[in-house]
Amino acid sequence: MPYRMNYRKLFTIILQEFRMTAATKSFLVMTILGPFLIGAIAILPGVLAQRQSRPSDDTRVGIATESTDTFSQFEAFLADSPLNTVRFASEEQGRSAIADGEIQGVLIIPENFADTSVLRYVSRTGTDMQVSSMLQAAAGTIITNARIADAGLDPQQIAELTRTPAVRSVRLESGDDGSGADGFAILLTALTFVMLIYMTVLLYGQMIGRSVLTEKIVNTKEIMLSSVRPSELLFGKIFGKGAASLVQYGVWIGIAALIITVIGPRFDIALPTGLTAGNLGFLLIFFLLGFFLYSTAFAAIGSGAQDEQQFGQLSIPVIVFLIIPLVLVSPIVMNPEGALVLGLSHFPLTSPIVMLLRILVDRPVWWEILLSIALLLGAIALAGAGAARIFSVGILKGGKAGSWKEMISWLRQ
Amino acid sequence: MVEVRNIRKTFGETVAVESVSFRASPGGVFGLIGPNGAGKSTTIRMIMNIFRPDSGEVLFDGHPITEHDKNRIGYLPEERGLYKTVTVNEMLMYLARLKGASAAVAQKRIDEWLERFGLAAWQHRKIDELSKGMSQKVQFIASIAHDPEIVFFDEPFSGLDPVSSDLMRDTILELGRTNRTVLISTHIMEHAEKICSDIVLIDRGREIVSGPLKSVKEEYGHRSVIVEFDGDRSIFDAMAGVRVIAGYPRYVELRLDEGFSPDTVLASVAGRISVQRLEVTTPTLHRIFVEQVGRDAVSHELS
Q1: CB A226 to CB B50 under 8 A?
Q2: Window B:49-88, CB contacts with A under 8 Å
Q3: At what angle do helices A308-327 and A183-217 cross, to 10 degrees?
Q4: Is the pTM for the entire model greater than 0.80?
Q5: What does residue A171 show for φ and ψ, rounded to 5 degrees?
Q6: Which residues does B31 contact at the CB level (< 8 Å), separation at least 6?
């Protein structure tokens, strides 16, 4: 009878466990810092991408050439870019200007510019790729145009004729012209969500396992069991810490909603397009399902272990199932309909992460999502009953080291 | 009232409790006594409904124990501890609430007990700031804060200083006098002797002796005589009607055979040694235990 409970006592335990989890400094720090981390993950890439594509408007670069004609071609080509060009008659002058901090770098134009295959760009860091690629584009066009003109053709006309379109990945879902809904942004959201589920399920699951272990280590187990049933203690811990995690998720999702509706539009920050109310809802659902499944497993482990070290060792087989989807993120995103992905998105230990990933990149048909949720609920019921049995035997066991084999044998007691 | 009938518990091949029966009534202190590993804790866990016995039964006021009965019991386990990160008051309230006590009643009793044990100043301090002795007292309060009808203290005196030990003893005796059913378990016979009205002595999972302390002493104890003297100790070895239980150069403890009195001893040593002290004692529980368990161990080996 693993589920027979006195609900008043269960509630008392839930309340106490909630207080012992939520009234700690680390909980406060996580809850407050969480949104900043998430905000950083959600907003920073967009901001950085905008910044990175355009070096700052006052970037000064030198062009070392004796020919004023060549220089003016560069100047004309780079007029629309953030780069401001300065001419130097020789490489040495350019180098000393870098040393003086007048310019960021200097492009050395050799005498045989039209035939050269490699140009040198000397700069302070040697790594300012954005600037050097702009200079490369400019030099390439100038040389090509010169060659085309030498051949008696019109460079303008050739440019028109050889124009190629750019390809942008757009999701079927987005329906419109797909402005902004590109794969990169979805991948970014997917990674954020996956990391969030992985971290919180692991964090809270282990917190519950340790809390069970603590009953053994500080010896409160017996006084507790003289007052309540093992199942009341087990589920009180799971629901109490679960409630604390919900508060945390509530705060985070609230902040995310604030970013979506207020901060994003007002400050004109490009948000990853996967960050929608629907996706946040799925994040919460799959977090809760994953949390309940893994926390029962960790609780069982906590009752089988004798100390922290053993708890760590016994946890490894369980943690592996949390890591598998992390390792497979890129194959899943690239091929969301592969057989392996379909399987993992319905296997309860991996489905919280894999199904969420599929929903983000390849919205599966509704019954697949429901099937995955149903299988998870079934697995949680089974794991809960199993954990209650392992817990009621294991919590009072002392002395020798526990093992998975032994814990499974407790299921039959 | 708590009645235990032939309970038995095995763990795999190991028989932890073979057969134990006793009955503890309100108004006294009942002692479950035995050496370490005798099966005391397993017996208590069966009474507390933490383990279910393989056979036999535990009755509370004549009916088998139910989950609800847990609220009527107070329990101080031998292996005890408290959450380290909560305050004394929070811990005590939590445990009292889990026993079904209302918050208001529990708080009143917690205040009273903390005051009485000199811990009022520590009420809102964290558990991990307490000394070991203070934490023992808090655990003791935890077992009685919900005003139970039946209390079970497993090794209540372990780790206590003499002053706290006396306070604990007085409190236990008082609980007995106020018509609660009080059970204690201990491996220290002197403690049992001072506060128990009834006892059961167990060893290796089996009951050795049980009954009111007074009649146990009468039934199993033979009177003995302690003699302090100057002179040759060997005269006691050859003396008729006595047996030397413990002998030192100037001190012997003698067991009198049936039909012999302390006068016999005095008469036969007169003039041969110089007697400093002669005392007639009833046997200690310790002595009864050692004798019963010793004899039992011998018959165990022979069978």
Answers
A1: yes
A2: 49-51, 67, 70-71, 73, 75-77, 79-86
A3: 170
A4: no
A5: -75, 145
A6: B183, B184, B185, B186, B192, B195, B196, B198, B199, B200, B213
CB contact under 8 A, A228 and B84: no
Find the CB nearest B85 among A8, A20, A226: A20
| pLDDT tens digits along A280-328 | 889 899 999 999 999 999 998 998 888 889 899 999 999 999 999 888 8
Collapsed DSSP state (helix, strand, coil) of residue B31: strand
pLDDT in tens, B246-280: 888 899 888 888 778 888 888 888 888 888 888 88
Helix, strand, coil fractions of chain A, as percent rounded to 5: 70, 5, 25
Give yes or no for A223 touching B (CB within 8 A). Answer: yes
Of the pLDDT bands very low, low, confident and very high (cuts 50, 70, 90), residue A180 is very low
Interface of B with A in 90-129 (CB under 8 A): 94-95, 97-100
Residue-wise pLDDT tens digits, A375-387: 999 999 999 888 8
Distance CA B176, CA A147 (A): 112
Element (H, E) at B42: helix B40-47
Mutation site for A-interface testing, chosen from B50, B69, B136 by largest number of A Cβ within 10 Å = B50
pLDDT in tens, B37-65: 888 888 988 888 888 899 999 998 889 88
Q: Which helix (H) or strand (E) holds B2?
A: strand B2-11
Assess A164–B contact: CB distance below 8 Å, yes or no.
no
- B83 CB neighbours in chain A (<8 A) are 20, 214, 218, 220
List the single residue in B with minimal CA-CA distance to A21.
B85
Give yes or no for B40 touching A (CB within 8 A). no
The kind and range of the H/E element at A69 are helix A68-77
Q: Phi first, then psi: what are they for B87, rounded to 5°?
A: -85, 165
Count of CB pairs separated by less than 8 Å, A with B: 61
What span, in angstroms and rounded, lies between the C-alpha atoms of A377 and A165? 49
Q: What is the pLDDT of residues B71-97, one digit of tens each?
A: 999 999 988 889 998 999 999 999 999
Contact residues on chain B for A227, CB-CB shorter than 8 A: 70-71, 95, 98-99
Q: Are strands B29-33 and B198-203 parallel, antiparallel or unpaired?
A: parallel
CB-based contacts of A229, cutoff 8 Å, min separation 6: A4, A5, A6, B67
Question: Tokens 């760590």 — which residue?
Answer: A312
Q: Which residues of A touch B86 (CB under 8 A)?
A: 20
Q: Residue B281 pLDDT > 90, yes or no?
A: no
Q: By the 8 A CB rule, do B8 and B53 touch?
A: yes
Q: Do B79 and A219 touch (CB under 8 A)?
A: yes
Distance from the B283 Cα atom to the nearest Cα atom in chain A, whole angstroms: 36
A324 phi/psi in degrees, rounded to 5: -50, -50
DSSP calls for B133-183: HHHHHHHHHHHHTT--SEEEEESTTTT--HHHHHHHHHHHHHHHHTT-EEE
CA A80/CA B185 separation, integer angstroms: 91
Instruction: Please name which of A377, A380, A382, A376 lies closest in space to residue A411, comparing C-alpha atoms.
Output: A382
Contacts of A229 in chain B (CB under 8 A): 67
What gap in Å lies between CA A366 and CA A380, rounded to an integer? 21
Residue A6, chain B, CB below 8 Å: the answer is yes
Task: Please indicate if any CB of chain B lies within 8 Å of the CB of A342.
Answer: no
